Amino acid sequence: MKRGEINRTIQGFLTLIHPDDIQRLEDSIERHRTSTTPIFEIYRVRKKDGSWIWWEDCGTPLLNEENQPIKWVGSCTDITVRKIAEDRLSEEQRFTELVVQSMPGLFYIFEKESAKFLRRNNNWRRLTGYSDGELETMTALDFFEEGKERDECAVCMQEVYDSGIASMENNLLTKSGKKIPFYFTWNRIDIKNNVYLLGMGIDVSERNWAVEKASRYSRVIENSLNEIYIFDADSLHFIEVNHGARENLGYSMEELYDLTALDLNPEITKDAFEKLVAPLRSGKREMVQFMTVHRRKDGSLYPVEVYLQLMAIDTLVFIAIVLDITERKRKEEERERLMLAIDQAAEIIVITGADGIIQYVNPAFERITGYTREEVIGRSPRLLKSGKHDQNFYSNMWDTLTRGETWRGRLINKKKDGSLYTEEAVISPVRDASGKIVCFVAAMRDVTSEIRLEDQLRHALKMEAVGQLAGGVAHDFNNLLTVILGHGNLALLSLEKDHSAAASLEQIIKAGDLAATLTRQLLAFSRRQVLEMVDLNLNVVINDLMKMIRRVLGEHITLDVITGHNLGTVRADRGQMEQILMNLCVNARDAMLKGGKITIETENVLIDESYCSSHPLAERGRYVLLSVTDTGSGMDEETLNHVFEPFFTTKGIGEGIGLGLSTVYGIIKQHNGMVNVYSEVGKGSTFKIYLPQVERSASSVGTKIEGQTPGGIETILLAEDDSGVRKLSKTILENAGYNVLTAVDGKEAKCIFDENADTIDMALLDVVMPNLGGRDVYEHIMKKRPQMRVLFASGYSMNAIHTNFVLDEGLQLIQKPYNAVTLLRRVREILDSTENDSGQSE
Fold this sequence. Notes:
The protein is α+β, with helices and mostly antiparallel strands. The chain is built from 26 helices and 33 strands. Helix 4 runs parallel beside helix 12 and helix 16 crosses helix 23. It is elongated. It starts with a helix and ends with a strand.
């Protein structure tokens, strides 16, 4: 029979062959048409529905007396599943996700406890009708109707946990309510002491299992590339085992005759086997598929995948086609470990082709950038470009990579929502066996928060250093001002009103008062002033200050006040809160020379983890928020970076000294609060001040009515290390009739008090002194005379008690610089007080 005649004979069959495989099949037939050696070919065949399946064909020609083929005898096996699996194994190392998505039917991995999916292919979405978001929330049991079908699934799941393998045929419930018959196989996978289930589901409503009814011809079975076993359906003893199986097992055929199928399957008991083949015996199924292990003659085990049919060949037999999946299992486990590591990594992992097109991203990429895997696969990483790097930057990166070198550096990229983030990246080329670059792997870590925290810490350290310098200068200057103003007032009081020097003294005192205001601002910024803390309601403070604020702002500024309902209480110095509000309003006014609007708002807020994540120096808790917003000129980024620094100002010469906002910053920090500013050029600014809430009711603070300044005859212990201030205070008190005992430091003050404890009526103590500070002297006095009245004096507290000294309730303070009237009035108030808490007047 010639080649043309053969073609005409099989012409009808060849119409079913894939066009790309016909020539190869004809050439193979031609080469073997006079040979009795079986030929093996793999090619694609078109099904009735038009789809293509892979066949493995084993055929032998039957020759006539002239040694010419008259017929071809053979068997064909549907190896579509195996073919796809084999193709997947060769590609998975680079394209694991693509393989998973290409698997036929349903592929999935889920957890033992929750039964939620860890991995699934896209066929779940297509076949069930559920979206990816819905599938993320569902478990493996949700796809079976409640009742018998779901119970059967649960039983089968438990079986796989116990035995490591299970299968079932059940109806898959879709979103529309339609039921599709599926054949499910499950395998247990133990990875790092965690139990997972790997499952596959095949739609059997239109399935024609790959394996045709086993050939009766022993020669075809013997030479099959697969392991083929035929064993009795009742006794399970082997009837026929082909060459490939005997080679792998190490048994001869004579030895296998004495064994049963279960002797090769140490993991499957008789009962378990009967459960597996029950659908075959009942006629519900034509084939069952499962995975198990076979034991060789030497005792070693190897994993196999078994396709089992029940057929009648003279007698009822099982025909098993067995695949040795040792290498596949090894690669699957290796891939699983790799994918688990990559998927759970906190760093971004991106794999691109040699052309730079994205082939894979891990969940960290999705979490950080906001893009889903589906949105970026097949696209260039250019979609992340922020515009912060010039073209030379990217050109140098690409040149480094294409030379086969690793690139390291920082990238500023853009998320899906438009926000920017900084990442430290290491991008490496990957070569194949020939040395050709086949892809690039990038590992990137988001360092945005770290950079932000570094900037905030750097700014805080700079502000702290400037504050220490400002506080030190202000402290020494306050002592000088106390002497200047004190003696100036004494001199002015000793002159007649019409004296020629009186006007000059008044100007000196006025200038000294302005200098004192400047030092108080410096102390507020440096957080060195002593605070008199009370429980306040900021709404009350704002309302009491409104008349003055409106007068300061002028008619060209509109003022809106929106006070929060049930505003929380804060622990604060009322005077400092008034200064903050006034400074912010004046600063806003100066930004609106042509008029505008200022809005003052208060409200209760909760600082949570999400806020703290973007503001690393913030602390969780409940706060009262004071906001001051203007519609002025606004500030650029450079101005915002310096806005709280002392003596920084954008105003002209003589229009401001740059201490208003730095004072606000210092006061808020001393109150353990936070201050943030938001501004855009031409759109105005908003200052937000957060003060911690306290669980107490706010106290009312009444207006003090100042009276005359009478003196007295009591004995006062005066402890002051500055000689000028000490002499001035002694003169003022003695001129008012008081008996004054002076000490140059805390140590001398203790000695004088011990010698005169019964005669001293009051102590005036400087907070900061050498040897012992005022607080130490106070505690010494309280041990001997708890009822002793004490007045503290300070320009700042520095290290007297702690860095930010805040007076306890009941302790009294006079702030330097002070004049004679202020000193005498405070001394008299304390001496005349009738109630005392730990020796201090209320």
